[in-house]
Amino acid sequence: MKQKQSNANIIFxxxxxxxxxxxxxxxxxxxxxxLCASLSNNTELVANPGLTLWPKGFTTGAYRLAFQHPLILxxxxxxxxxxxxxxxxxxxxxxxxxxxxxxKNMLFKKYIVIFMMFTMFFSGGLIPMYLNQRSxxxxxxxxxxxxxxxxxxxxxIICKTAIENLPDSLAESAxxxxxxxxxxxxxxxxxxxxxxxxxxxxxxxVGHWNNWFQASIFIEDNKLLPVQNILRSLLxxxxxxxxxxxxxxxxxxxxxxxxxxxxxxxxxxxxxxxxIYPFLQRFFVKGIMIGAVKG
Length: 295
Description:
Structural class: mainly alpha
Order of helices and strands: HHHHHHHHHHHHHH
Helix content: over 70%
Radius of gyration: 25 Å
């Protein structure tokens, strides 16, 4: 019986390994294809569409031209500024909101929680939001991409569940020693739920980095657009609107990289998030489990 079980395990492991290798290939190949296309010669790439296993006529001209485009550099700067100002605000608001949701015997807590949960499912709509932004003086300002999304109820609920999993005796002993709610939250609770905070931080960072829709509505000045809006413009604009002006005097001609520059822009805007993820990966599974399971 043990020999049969062992054989079954061997067969399962072999099949599982083959399946996982296949899954890795179909998951990683699209990015590999984009990388190869970005390093290819534009003429050869257009002439030979389809499966790409290596660069077709290796060249880095698309990257040189992409970095010479002024809006890509300003887009990176704007995206980094948004992250620097938005992420601390997001974490502070999320921790305060989660601490309130997890608090016991809070006055009017039931009605406030209902009101907060209501915002997860219903909003005022795009037009009222636009008018509200203009009336607050946030139109054509990077603050329009930071302040309205300062708190995500979904992330607050994840942190709230993590806080509820902590023993009540920790906060009670701190209160006995004279600590207030700010001390309990910042010096006791926050260090204990750091895996969950790391996951929430990753959620917020990816959300801000990939957010292009709000910028396309609330930002009018091209020099204030985040990098994802510049990427979108690169993917949909024709060569005359993108390659004129400053590009006409560059060493590389845009019309020689009409396709490859699009792939280069995708790589340029994707790499930063891919570089950040490995540092937070070790917290990811633990943080999700702490924030999703009670008891």
